[in-house]
Amino acid sequence: MASDKLHIHRDFVDSLCQGSHLLSNSEIMTSIDKISRIMKEHIIASDDTVRATGKTYYISNNGNDLNDGLSPEKAWATAEHLHKMGDNLKEGDAVLFERGGIWRKPLGYTDKATPMFTALKGVYYGAYGKGRKPILCGSERNFAEEALWVETEQKNVYLCTLPFYNAGLMALDHSEELGLYDEKIATKEVVGLNGFGGLSDMHKDCSYFNDMENKKLYFYSEKGNPGKRFKSIEICGRATIILNSSAALIENFIFQYDGYGITGGPVMRVKNCIFRYMGGCMLYPENDCTVPCGNAIEIYGSVDEMTVENCWIYQMVDTAVTHQMWKYEGDCIQKNIKYTDNLIEYCHWSIEFNNPPSKDGSKRAVQNFEHSYNVINNGGNGWGSINFNRQDKSAVYNCFGCAEVINGVCESNIFNTCAGGLYRMHLPGDKDIKYRKNINLQYKGNILGQYLGTFYNYYENAAEIASEHSNQKDCVFITL
Predict the structure, then answer these.
(1) pTM value > 0.85
(2) What angle do CA 107, 312, 441 make, to 5 degrees?
């Protein structure tokens, strides 16, 4: 049993796993709601643990980039000042953002797919002061300004006066309150999706269309100029907020409104962060692709260490946490991976990984990973699944296929329903993952998962099906 307050939710997860057979479905759902609430409260109130062994630099909305940044009184003002620091930041240094502040990407960064800053090797990034975690916002500005939208010849269709390439999720009048899962999001129209053919097909209020070839963004509004109609309009770009170059730690930030939160690697350590409402850009726009992208935390290719703990991630158009490889040539070893104590909600895919066999005989393996005490709620029921009409393709635990799995454990997690399936396993190597004491809940008639190409519905014999196709021990399967 967990004894420290930091992981008190683990006690409840363990107790629920052991005693679920004594509880009704409504009592089980109430317990999961309680566990989720405890995790939220802990993540929101998490302490700042960054301690530099070198210099500590400060960034504040009240600072000045002409300062030396070496004290709160002489803090820098902007995150992009970190680009200018270059090699001046050394391993063991720390960069701290003041709590309560918000930093946006500068104008033009979205169009150029530029990160807000690069987290350098061995440098710590975190927060200081009191109050809300510092917000890192990919949306370059509040687009709710009347002059930014002009009416076109087509009735109710307005054109943004600023160029925009590959616009993602568009948030309308969102609040700063955390944990609101149903805030208003405009409907994204994509050529080739749901019968949409182009600008002349815009007829739905609060929908938008991005003509990427000409960098034009259109919005359909039945109640006048959208810049006047709404108090705030935030638009996700295609880039990442932080490009990680093996930073020592990234801790206590809120990420919102961009294509990705943190990408890079091969070493990544993320703790006590919140990611919300991100993604929605097209994955391969140059190929008329209708598949959206947008992940909270991602490493592509080889992994030497990846730790994601005590994070809260919700309304990701695509994936919450992922390490992946899609190319079929070259070595790729993904090892020493730990996802623990994370709360993940309303994401299309929640935990995802893949490292398929190569075509040239190169070495491929995923080894030494632990996914434990994560709580995943309402998979496939977020905006990204619904808007792009792909709820049936969603999965909570999504392995696209691993050539070889060595010492992989998925233990003591709660997988709480999915519009698609709870699991996706593609290759025989996926069967080597050890599943222990997980609590699985799915609605009767929905998909339990895809096992080596075959889909299985979720009925009373779900435990038998899962045990037949994967390495299950002391896991709980509950039909709702």
Answers:
(1) yes
(2) 135
